[in-house]
Structure formats: C-alpha cells, structure tokens
Amino acid sequence: MVGSAAFVYDDSVLKYDFGSGHPFKITRVRMAMDRLADSFQELQIEPARSATRAEAELFHDPGYLDLVKRFSTAGAGLLDGGDTPAFKGCYEASLNVVGATLRAVELVLSGKYAHAASFAGGLHHAGRRNASGFCIMNDCAVALALLRRRFNKVAYLDLDAHHGDGVMYGFYSDPGVICVDVHQDGRTLFPGTGSYLEAGSGEAKGTKLNLPLPPGSADDVLVSMFGDLVVPFLEQARPDFFIVQCGADGLKGDPLAGLSFTQCGYLRVIEMLHEIAHRACLGRLVLVGGGGYNPGAVAECWAGEYMALSGKPPICGTKPSTSLPSVLRKAESVMSAIRESHPSFSG
Ligand SMILES: [Zn+2]
Ligand SMILES: [Zn+2]
User: What's the pLDDT score for residue 347?
Assistant: First the structure.
C-alpha cells in the first residue's frame, strides 16, 4: 500500500546554519515537524541522507564545489556579494540539504509514497558556478537533473517571493524542464529577474512561465494566477514529476519581501498542484522549502502544506487576503500581458 506523504527530516539538515544573526533559519523545518507531531496522526517521518559529490556535480561545476570546500574548511569568507557567508562545514551541510531533497525524490520514485516533503531544501538561487541569496548548493536543480535522466518532462514550481533564478537559468534551454515561477516583480525585489517575457530559449521556448506580481499582491491574485494560467499551462504540459519550491516569504509581514499572501492562498495552490499531479503522473510530487523569514508563520504554513498532500488540509484559520484595487489592476494587466505574449497562450 502506497503511503500518502513522507516528511523527510533528521537533525543532519540543521547544520545548514549561517549563525544566529542571519535571517535564514533552517530550524523552521524542525518547527514544522514538531507542529505536525503534536496534532497530525498521519505524519510519516523518513530520515534524510547526505548527497554524494557526484550527485552535486549533476548540476554544479566541480571547480565551484572545490571552492565551497575550501571556504568550508576555512570557515570564513563570503560565497557571494554579501548575503551568503561561508561557515565551518558549509560544504557538508549543503550536501546534507541536497541529499534530503534527493531522498524525498527517491521515496516517491520507489513507489513507497505518492508524495514527499523536504522543507530543508528549496535553495533555488544557487547557480552552477555560484552561491547566491543564502543558497550554496541548489538541491532543486540537482533533483531536476537527476529526474531528467529518467523522464522526458519534469515540472518545477516556485512559490517563493523571490525569483528562482538558479533553477530557471540552469535549465533555460532544456525543453524537458517546465518551470513556473510566481514571485514579486523583480523591479522591486532581489534578484531582479523573472520578467514574463522570459519564456525559455531555443527548443525550450515556451516551457518557462514567469508570473511577476506587484508588491502587495494578496491571495486573490495568487489563486487567480494559478487557476487561470498555471493550471491550463500544466494540463497542457503533462509532466512526469513535480517539484514544488514552497518558499513562504510571500506571507504578509515577511521582513524581506512585500507580498500579502496568507496560508489560505498557499494551501489553495498546493491543492491545485496536488490534483494535477494525480491526473498527470500518479501524484508524483515533492515539496521543498525555501525562503520565509517569520519562522513561526513559515513553520505553520509548511505543516499545512504537508497536511494538504495527505489529503487533509487544515481548516484555514483566517480569511483569504484581498488585494487593494490598485494592486489588482496591475496584476490583471500582467495576466493579460502574459496571455498575449507567452508562446503557450498566444498560440
Ligand atoms: Zn525568497
Ligand atoms: Zn495525493
């Protein structure tokens, strides 16, 4: 009998720790698990594992991995322009995060579970040869590279407030990686990329869908973008596997972003993706984590998303948020621009 959803966790992932003064808190994963352990009988914890060097090289350049290793041994220095400091053991800690995500993928591929969650993962900014935005190794990209050996078409959905540039550009010319990225408009937020005009290159043109949202966008915008654009896009693509990056820094009040989602909006989106995955590919879907800088709110959101995969989404305690009329008008004009310009909609 196939279990519904695995929660991949052990304390090895907690080593991905930039220190107490840094906004990225890996402990959110543990907090989400603790919440579930208190109240959710269906919680099925599976231990993580470390990735091998060869697995990391499925996406990352060996020279870059050597550089990370040197910084990791030294335990000091900056791996990017300033947001991503090296720490002692950051090489091994990054391999732990990559391994946790690969474990989630394996649990689904083996048929033991229809779905799995590895909220330690979701480090979507790291590029083949660079760290960026708190991300040293890109677990999502390594998992996609691995899945591409097996499947012709895999889908990556990115719900983080920031554009998932490391994944998007890592597979920009690969028609077998369908990317959908909803994020706060890059003209107002790091890393600045993700215009709706970026749709993939060469043979892959039309396989990438960027949904840049005006600051202040609330659940109404998120849910209609998914219902009107993303669902038809994915129904048409029919991928064989889904990886969903669940960065929760789009929650209202996040200190690093300016969107106004609530857990209700995120849950609705996860439910839509869950349904499509069952229709398209026997439910094969893995959730990973990502950003989110109010730890308690993020842990709550992730716990709810995991419950949704088990078919028992929590009752949303709050009302879905609504956008101001001025924000709604801007979002509607983005949606019509996408319909007119994107190869998948404009025919
Ligand atoms: Zn983010
Ligand atoms: Zn399911």
Answer: 61
Q: Where are the alpha helices (DSSP H) in the chain?
A: 27-39, 53-56, 62-74, 90-109, 139-148, 165-170, 219-225, 231-237, 263-281, 295-309, 325-341
Per the DSSP assignment, residues forming a β-bridge with 178 are 155
DSSP, collapsed to helix, strand or coil, labels residue 277 as helix
| Contact indicator for 289, 122 with CB cutoff of 8 Å | yes
Secondary-structure breakdown of the chain: helix, strand, coil percentages, each rounded to the nearest 5: 40, 15, 45
CA of 39 to the centre of ligand 2 (A): 20
Q: How many CB atoms lie within 10 A of CB 315?
A: 7
What is the 60 CA–ligand 1 centroid distance (Å)? 21
d(CA 2, ligand 1 centre) in Å: 33
- Please give the distance, rounded to the nearest whole angstrom, from the Cα atom of residue 289 to the centre of ligand 1: 10
Please give the distance of CA 67 from its chain centroid, rounded to a whole number.
Answer: 25
What is d(CA 60, CA 128) in angstroms, rounded to the nearest whole number? 4
Domain ranges of the chain: 3-341
pLDDT at 1: 42
- Alpha helices (runs of H) in 110-247, residue ranges in sequence order: 139-148, 165-170, 219-225, 231-237
Q: What is the whole-number distance in angstroms between the Cα of residue 115 and the centre of ligand 2? A: 7
How is domain 3-341 classified at the CATH fold level? Arginase; Chain A (3.40.800)
Distance (Å) from CA 229 to ligand 2 centroid: 22
Ligand 1 center from residue 290 Cα (angstroms): 6
Pick from 134, 159, 131, 155: which is nearest to 143 by CA?
155
Indicate which ligand has the atom closest to the C-alpha of 115: 2
Query: How many angstroms is it from 110 CA to the middle of ligand 1?
Result: 31
* 168-193 pLDDT tens trace: 999 999 999 999 999 999 999 999 99
- Whether the model pTM is above 0.70: yes
